[in-house]
Amino acid sequence: MPEIDSRALAALVRPGARIALADGTGTPQAAFAALGDVARERGGVRLVLGWMPAVPEGLDLAAFADARTVMPGWGLRAGVAGGLVRSVPARLSAVPALVAGPLRPDLLVVAAVPGPDGLSLGSEVSWVRAAVEAGVPIAAVVDDALPRAAAGPPLPEARTTVIGRVRRGPAVVPVAPEPSPEHRRIGELVAGLLPDDARVQWAPGQLGQAVVRAILERGRPVHADSGLLGDPVVDLDEAGLLASTPVATYLVGTPRLYDWADAQGRAGRPVVHGVEVTHDQARLAADPPLVAVNTAVEIDADGQVNVEGTASALVGGIGGHPDYAAAATRSGRGLSVVALASTHRGRPTMVERLSRPVTTASHDVDVVVTEHGTADLRGLDRDERRAALARLWV
Protein backbone atom coordinates (compact mmCIF):
# COMPACT_ATOMS: atom_id res chain seq x y z
CA MET A 1 0.00 0.00 0.00
CA PRO A 2 1.45 3.44 -0.92
CA GLU A 3 2.35 5.80 1.91
CA ILE A 4 0.46 8.68 0.30
CA ASP A 5 -3.11 8.68 -1.05
CA SER A 6 -2.51 10.70 -4.21
CA ARG A 7 -6.21 10.90 -5.02
CA ALA A 8 -6.99 12.40 -1.62
CA LEU A 9 -4.26 15.00 -2.19
CA ALA A 10 -5.41 15.76 -5.74
CA ALA A 11 -8.96 16.37 -4.52
CA LEU A 12 -7.65 19.26 -2.42
CA VAL A 13 -5.79 21.01 -5.27
CA ARG A 14 -7.41 23.08 -8.00
CA PRO A 15 -5.64 24.42 -11.12
CA GLY A 16 -3.58 27.50 -10.26
CA ALA A 17 -3.67 26.81 -6.51
CA ARG A 18 -0.92 27.92 -4.16
CA ILE A 19 0.41 25.18 -1.87
CA ALA A 20 2.49 25.85 1.24
CA LEU A 21 4.83 23.06 2.30
CA ALA A 22 5.73 22.92 5.98
CA ASP A 23 9.46 23.26 6.47
CA GLY A 24 12.25 22.20 8.81
CA THR A 25 13.54 18.73 9.63
CA GLY A 26 9.96 17.44 9.86
CA THR A 27 8.86 18.56 6.41
CA PRO A 28 6.47 15.92 4.94
CA GLN A 29 8.98 14.34 2.57
CA ALA A 30 6.73 11.36 1.91
CA ALA A 31 4.35 13.67 0.02
CA PHE A 32 6.99 15.29 -2.21
CA ALA A 33 6.57 13.02 -5.24
CA ALA A 34 2.78 13.16 -5.08
CA LEU A 35 2.87 16.95 -4.87
CA GLY A 36 4.86 17.15 -8.08
CA ASP A 37 2.49 14.74 -9.82
CA VAL A 38 -0.56 16.75 -8.76
CA ALA A 39 1.07 20.04 -9.80
CA ARG A 40 1.77 18.72 -13.32
CA GLU A 41 -1.73 17.30 -13.63
CA ARG A 42 -3.55 20.42 -12.42
CA GLY A 43 -1.32 23.04 -14.06
CA GLY A 44 -0.35 26.49 -12.87
CA VAL A 45 0.20 25.32 -9.28
CA ARG A 46 2.40 27.59 -7.15
CA LEU A 47 4.54 26.55 -4.19
CA VAL A 48 5.59 28.32 -0.98
CA LEU A 49 8.57 26.89 0.87
CA GLY A 50 10.37 27.72 4.08
CA TRP A 51 13.65 26.68 5.67
CA MET A 52 14.98 23.41 4.26
CA PRO A 53 18.05 22.07 6.10
CA ALA A 54 18.47 19.29 3.53
CA VAL A 55 17.95 19.01 -0.22
CA PRO A 56 14.24 18.16 -0.76
CA GLU A 57 14.85 14.88 -2.55
CA GLY A 58 11.84 13.78 -4.57
CA LEU A 59 10.30 17.25 -4.85
CA ASP A 60 10.16 18.21 -8.54
CA LEU A 61 10.46 21.98 -8.33
CA ALA A 62 10.11 22.24 -12.13
CA ALA A 63 6.54 20.91 -11.88
CA PHE A 64 5.35 24.18 -10.32
CA ALA A 65 4.47 27.35 -12.20
CA ASP A 66 6.10 29.37 -9.44
CA ALA A 67 8.10 28.33 -6.39
CA ARG A 68 9.42 30.73 -3.79
CA THR A 69 10.91 30.44 -0.35
CA VAL A 70 10.77 32.78 2.61
CA MET A 71 13.99 31.27 4.05
CA PRO A 72 16.12 29.18 1.70
CA GLY A 73 18.56 27.34 3.93
CA TRP A 74 21.18 24.94 2.64
CA GLY A 75 18.66 22.59 1.06
CA LEU A 76 17.33 25.11 -1.46
CA ARG A 77 20.61 26.70 -2.56
CA ALA A 78 20.74 24.71 -5.79
CA GLY A 79 17.09 25.44 -6.54
CA VAL A 80 17.62 29.16 -6.07
CA ALA A 81 20.87 29.17 -8.06
CA GLY A 82 19.18 27.23 -10.87
CA GLY A 83 16.26 29.63 -11.11
CA LEU A 84 13.69 27.09 -9.93
CA VAL A 85 13.02 28.87 -6.63
CA ARG A 86 12.74 32.58 -5.91
CA SER A 87 14.09 33.68 -2.53
CA VAL A 88 11.89 36.28 -0.84
CA PRO A 89 13.92 38.60 1.42
CA ALA A 90 12.03 38.62 4.73
CA ARG A 91 12.95 38.48 8.38
CA LEU A 92 11.38 35.46 10.02
CA SER A 93 9.05 37.52 12.23
CA ALA A 94 7.43 38.94 9.06
CA VAL A 95 6.65 35.56 7.49
CA PRO A 96 3.33 34.99 9.32
CA ALA A 97 1.99 38.21 7.78
CA LEU A 98 3.15 37.03 4.35
CA VAL A 99 1.45 33.64 4.56
CA ALA A 100 -1.72 35.22 5.90
CA GLY A 101 -1.60 37.91 3.19
CA PRO A 102 0.16 38.11 -0.19
CA LEU A 103 1.48 34.52 -0.03
CA ARG A 104 -1.64 33.01 1.55
CA PRO A 105 -1.86 29.39 0.39
CA ASP A 106 -4.95 27.51 -0.72
CA LEU A 107 -3.58 24.35 0.90
CA LEU A 108 -1.05 23.67 3.65
CA VAL A 109 0.78 20.33 3.57
CA VAL A 110 2.28 19.23 6.90
CA ALA A 111 3.59 16.24 8.79
CA ALA A 112 1.77 15.63 12.06
CA VAL A 113 2.10 13.34 15.05
CA PRO A 114 -0.82 11.80 16.96
CA GLY A 115 -1.34 13.14 20.45
CA PRO A 116 -3.89 12.85 23.24
CA ASP A 117 -6.01 15.66 21.75
CA GLY A 118 -5.57 14.92 18.05
CA LEU A 119 -2.94 15.53 15.41
CA SER A 120 -0.23 18.04 16.29
CA LEU A 121 2.84 19.52 14.66
CA GLY A 122 6.03 17.73 15.61
CA SER A 123 9.63 18.93 15.37
CA GLU A 124 8.84 22.51 14.37
CA VAL A 125 6.02 25.05 14.29
CA SER A 126 7.70 27.99 12.51
CA TRP A 127 5.29 30.05 10.37
CA VAL A 128 2.91 27.11 9.87
CA ARG A 129 0.69 28.15 12.78
CA ALA A 130 -0.08 31.43 10.99
CA ALA A 131 -1.41 29.56 7.96
CA VAL A 132 -3.48 27.28 10.21
CA GLU A 133 -4.96 30.24 12.06
CA ALA A 134 -5.73 31.96 8.74
CA GLY A 135 -8.18 29.14 8.03
CA VAL A 136 -6.17 27.38 5.31
CA PRO A 137 -7.21 23.76 4.58
CA ILE A 138 -4.61 21.22 5.72
CA ALA A 139 -3.31 18.01 4.15
CA ALA A 140 -1.55 15.98 6.83
CA VAL A 141 0.91 13.13 6.54
CA VAL A 142 0.71 11.36 9.90
CA ASP A 143 4.23 10.47 11.06
CA ASP A 144 4.26 8.35 14.21
CA ALA A 145 8.03 8.86 14.63
CA LEU A 146 7.93 12.65 15.01
CA PRO A 147 8.65 14.00 18.50
CA ARG A 148 5.72 15.50 20.36
CA ALA A 149 7.54 18.79 20.84
CA ALA A 150 5.04 21.42 19.65
CA ALA A 151 3.35 23.78 22.07
CA GLY A 152 -0.14 25.00 21.27
CA PRO A 153 -3.37 23.39 20.10
CA PRO A 154 -3.69 20.38 17.78
CA LEU A 155 -4.58 20.81 14.12
CA PRO A 156 -8.26 21.64 13.58
CA GLU A 157 -9.93 18.34 12.76
CA ALA A 158 -12.62 19.88 10.57
CA ARG A 159 -10.04 21.38 8.17
CA THR A 160 -7.51 18.53 8.20
CA THR A 161 -7.46 15.73 5.64
CA VAL A 162 -5.10 12.82 6.31
CA ILE A 163 -3.37 11.89 3.04
CA GLY A 164 -0.99 9.24 4.33
CA ARG A 165 0.73 7.61 7.27
CA VAL A 166 4.45 6.92 7.70
CA ARG A 167 7.02 6.28 10.36
CA ARG A 168 10.04 8.33 9.29
CA GLY A 169 10.70 10.96 11.93
CA PRO A 170 12.59 14.20 11.39
CA ALA A 171 15.64 14.42 9.16
CA VAL A 172 18.90 13.78 10.98
CA VAL A 173 21.30 16.71 10.87
CA PRO A 174 24.73 15.65 12.19
CA VAL A 175 26.28 17.53 15.08
CA ALA A 176 28.67 20.22 13.87
CA PRO A 177 32.36 19.32 13.62
CA GLU A 178 34.63 19.83 16.58
CA PRO A 179 35.11 23.60 17.03
CA SER A 180 38.36 24.99 15.68
CA PRO A 181 40.79 26.73 18.06
CA GLU A 182 39.50 30.07 16.77
CA HIS A 183 35.91 29.11 17.52
CA ARG A 184 36.82 27.79 20.96
CA ARG A 185 38.46 31.12 21.77
CA ILE A 186 35.40 33.00 20.49
CA GLY A 187 33.13 30.79 22.59
CA GLU A 188 35.13 31.56 25.72
CA LEU A 189 34.96 35.29 25.04
CA VAL A 190 31.19 35.14 24.44
CA ALA A 191 30.58 33.13 27.63
CA GLY A 192 32.45 35.81 29.54
CA LEU A 193 29.90 38.38 28.37
CA LEU A 194 26.88 36.55 29.81
CA PRO A 195 25.18 38.22 32.78
CA ASP A 196 23.64 36.20 35.59
CA ASP A 197 20.37 34.49 34.64
CA ALA A 198 21.09 35.06 30.94
CA ARG A 199 18.71 34.00 28.20
CA VAL A 200 20.89 32.88 25.28
CA GLN A 201 20.21 32.59 21.58
CA TRP A 202 23.00 30.97 19.61
CA ALA A 203 23.70 30.20 15.99
CA PRO A 204 24.07 26.58 14.84
CA GLY A 205 27.34 25.05 13.69
CA GLN A 206 30.84 25.21 15.13
CA LEU A 207 30.25 28.59 16.72
CA GLY A 208 27.16 27.45 18.59
CA GLN A 209 28.96 24.32 19.74
CA ALA A 210 31.82 26.44 21.05
CA VAL A 211 29.52 28.83 22.89
CA VAL A 212 27.62 26.02 24.60
CA ARG A 213 30.85 24.25 25.49
CA ALA A 214 32.10 27.42 27.17
CA ILE A 215 28.81 27.76 29.06
CA LEU A 216 29.21 24.17 30.27
CA GLU A 217 32.74 24.88 31.43
CA ARG A 218 31.55 28.03 33.16
CA GLY A 219 28.93 26.02 35.03
CA ARG A 220 26.28 28.75 35.42
CA PRO A 221 22.66 28.01 34.38
CA VAL A 222 21.17 29.78 31.37
CA HIS A 223 17.82 29.99 29.62
CA ALA A 224 17.83 28.68 26.02
CA ASP A 225 15.73 30.85 23.68
CA SER A 226 16.74 30.31 20.06
CA GLY A 227 15.19 29.97 16.62
CA LEU A 228 16.97 26.67 16.04
CA LEU A 229 17.50 24.22 18.87
CA GLY A 230 20.12 21.52 18.37
CA ASP A 231 21.83 18.74 20.31
CA PRO A 232 23.84 21.11 22.55
CA VAL A 233 20.65 21.89 24.50
CA VAL A 234 20.63 18.26 25.65
CA ASP A 235 24.17 18.72 26.97
CA LEU A 236 22.98 21.72 28.98
CA ASP A 237 20.02 19.80 30.35
CA GLU A 238 22.10 16.77 31.34
CA ALA A 239 24.55 19.09 33.11
CA GLY A 240 21.71 20.70 35.08
CA LEU A 241 22.38 24.07 33.43
CA LEU A 242 18.96 24.77 31.89
CA ALA A 243 17.25 27.39 34.03
CA SER A 244 13.85 26.90 32.33
CA THR A 245 12.11 25.03 29.53
CA PRO A 246 13.80 26.00 26.24
CA VAL A 247 11.97 28.00 23.59
CA ALA A 248 12.56 27.51 19.85
CA THR A 249 10.68 27.23 16.59
CA TYR A 250 12.73 24.44 14.92
CA LEU A 251 14.46 21.32 16.21
CA VAL A 252 17.50 20.41 14.13
CA GLY A 253 19.78 17.57 15.14
CA THR A 254 20.11 13.88 15.78
CA PRO A 255 17.84 11.22 17.33
CA ARG A 256 19.34 12.16 20.72
CA LEU A 257 17.71 15.59 20.43
CA TYR A 258 14.43 14.27 19.08
CA ASP A 259 14.16 11.64 21.82
CA TRP A 260 14.84 14.33 24.42
CA ALA A 261 12.11 16.54 22.91
CA ASP A 262 9.67 13.63 22.89
CA ALA A 263 10.41 13.03 26.59
CA GLN A 264 11.10 9.36 25.76
CA GLY A 265 7.60 8.72 24.47
CA ARG A 266 5.64 10.29 27.31
CA ALA A 267 3.48 13.40 26.91
CA GLY A 268 6.17 15.27 24.97
CA ARG A 269 8.18 18.35 25.78
CA PRO A 270 6.53 21.55 24.42
CA VAL A 271 9.64 23.42 23.30
CA VAL A 272 8.75 24.52 19.75
CA HIS A 273 6.39 27.43 19.20
CA GLY A 274 5.19 29.56 16.31
CA VAL A 275 7.33 32.39 14.99
CA GLU A 276 4.75 34.79 16.41
CA VAL A 277 5.97 33.70 19.86
CA THR A 278 9.64 32.91 19.35
CA HIS A 279 10.53 36.00 17.33
CA ASP A 280 8.28 38.49 19.10
CA GLN A 281 10.57 41.38 19.98
CA ALA A 282 8.60 42.50 23.03
CA ARG A 283 8.83 39.02 24.54
CA LEU A 284 12.50 38.68 23.65
CA ALA A 285 13.44 42.07 25.10
CA ALA A 286 11.79 41.32 28.46
CA ASP A 287 13.55 39.67 31.40
CA PRO A 288 15.55 37.47 31.71
CA PRO A 289 18.19 39.43 29.80
CA LEU A 290 18.63 38.26 26.21
CA VAL A 291 22.10 37.71 24.81
CA ALA A 292 21.71 37.04 21.09
CA VAL A 293 24.82 35.36 19.70
CA ASN A 294 24.80 35.37 15.93
CA THR A 295 27.45 35.03 13.28
CA ALA A 296 27.96 36.52 9.82
CA VAL A 297 29.25 35.71 6.38
CA GLU A 298 30.93 39.10 6.44
CA ILE A 299 30.84 42.42 8.26
CA ASP A 300 31.89 45.84 7.03
CA ALA A 301 33.94 48.52 8.77
CA ASP A 302 30.79 50.15 10.15
CA GLY A 303 29.48 46.91 11.67
CA GLN A 304 26.81 46.16 9.06
CA VAL A 305 26.19 42.42 8.75
CA ASN A 306 25.54 40.15 5.77
CA VAL A 307 24.38 36.57 6.39
CA GLU A 308 22.77 35.82 3.01
CA GLY A 309 25.86 34.87 1.05
CA THR A 310 28.88 35.83 -0.96
CA ALA A 311 28.91 37.66 -4.28
CA SER A 312 28.85 34.33 -6.12
CA ALA A 313 26.69 32.08 -3.93
CA LEU A 314 23.67 32.13 -1.67
CA VAL A 315 24.59 30.78 1.76
CA GLY A 316 21.42 31.26 3.77
CA GLY A 317 18.51 33.58 4.32
CA ILE A 318 17.74 36.53 6.55
CA GLY A 319 15.95 34.33 9.05
CA GLY A 320 15.79 35.53 12.63
CA HIS A 321 19.17 37.30 12.67
CA PRO A 322 17.74 40.85 12.66
CA ASP A 323 14.85 39.88 14.97
CA TYR A 324 17.06 38.59 17.78
CA ALA A 325 19.69 41.29 17.27
CA ALA A 326 17.17 44.15 17.52
CA ALA A 327 15.45 42.61 20.54
CA ALA A 328 18.74 42.04 22.36
CA THR A 329 19.74 45.70 21.99
CA ARG A 330 16.53 46.61 23.84
CA SER A 331 16.90 43.99 26.57
CA GLY A 332 18.03 45.31 29.94
CA ARG A 333 21.46 43.74 30.68
CA GLY A 334 21.15 41.98 27.32
CA LEU A 335 23.52 42.13 24.36
CA SER A 336 23.39 41.73 20.60
CA VAL A 337 26.60 39.86 19.79
CA VAL A 338 28.01 39.12 16.34
CA ALA A 339 30.74 36.49 16.64
CA LEU A 340 32.89 35.30 13.76
CA ALA A 341 36.41 34.22 12.94
CA SER A 342 38.51 36.99 11.41
CA THR A 343 39.15 34.89 8.29
CA HIS A 344 37.25 32.24 6.36
CA ARG A 345 39.09 30.03 3.89
CA GLY A 346 41.99 32.43 3.98
CA ARG A 347 39.98 35.58 3.29
CA PRO A 348 39.15 38.33 5.80
CA THR A 349 35.55 38.38 7.00
CA MET A 350 35.70 42.17 7.34
CA VAL A 351 35.17 43.76 3.94
CA GLU A 352 35.08 47.25 2.56
CA ARG A 353 31.72 46.62 0.90
CA LEU A 354 29.25 43.82 1.66
CA SER A 355 28.69 41.28 -1.13
CA ARG A 356 24.93 41.26 -0.51
CA PRO A 357 22.38 43.65 0.98
CA VAL A 358 22.57 44.39 4.70
CA THR A 359 20.90 41.72 6.84
CA THR A 360 21.33 43.37 10.23
CA ALA A 361 21.98 47.07 10.68
CA SER A 362 25.06 48.25 12.52
CA HIS A 363 22.95 49.95 15.19
CA ASP A 364 21.54 46.55 16.13
CA VAL A 365 25.01 45.21 16.94
CA ASP A 366 26.30 45.83 20.48
CA VAL A 367 29.43 43.69 20.59
CA VAL A 368 31.57 42.02 17.93
CA VAL A 369 33.80 39.09 18.86
CA THR A 370 36.62 37.45 16.89
CA GLU A 371 39.43 35.22 18.08
CA HIS A 372 41.44 38.43 18.55
CA GLY A 373 39.13 39.88 21.19
CA THR A 374 35.94 41.81 21.85
CA ALA A 375 34.77 45.19 20.58
CA ASP A 376 32.03 46.77 22.70
CA LEU A 377 30.41 49.29 20.36
CA ARG A 378 27.78 50.63 22.75
CA GLY A 379 27.88 54.37 23.22
CA LEU A 380 30.52 54.92 20.54
CA ASP A 381 30.23 57.27 17.59
CA ARG A 382 30.86 56.09 14.04
CA ASP A 383 34.58 56.84 14.03
CA GLU A 384 35.09 55.14 17.40
CA ARG A 385 33.15 52.09 16.23
CA ARG A 386 35.30 51.74 13.11
CA ALA A 387 38.47 51.97 15.19
CA ALA A 388 37.22 49.38 17.69
CA LEU A 389 36.26 46.95 14.92
CA ALA A 390 39.53 47.40 13.06
CA ARG A 391 41.44 46.12 16.09
CA LEU A 392 39.73 42.75 15.76
CA TRP A 393 41.07 42.16 12.25
CA VAL A 394 44.82 42.37 12.82
Automatic annotation (TrEMBL):
The keyword Cell inner membrane does not apply. One of its GO terms (molecular function) is hydrolase activity. Gene3D superfamilies: 4-hydroxybutyrate coenzyme like domains, Acetyl-CoA hydrolase/transferase C-terminal domain, Glutaconate Coenzyme A-transferase. Residues 253-390 form the Acetyl-CoA hydrolase/transferase C-terminal domain. It comes from the Bacteria. InterPro entries: AcetylCoA_hyd_C, AcetylCoA_hyd_C_sf, ActCoA_hydro, NagB/RpiA_transferase-like. PANTHER family: ACETYL-COA HYDROLASE (PTHR21432:SF20), ACETYL-COA HYDROLASE-RELATED (PTHR21432). This is Acetyl-CoA hydrolase/transferase C-terminal domain-containing protein. The keyword Cell cycle does not apply. It comes from Actinomycetospora termitidis.
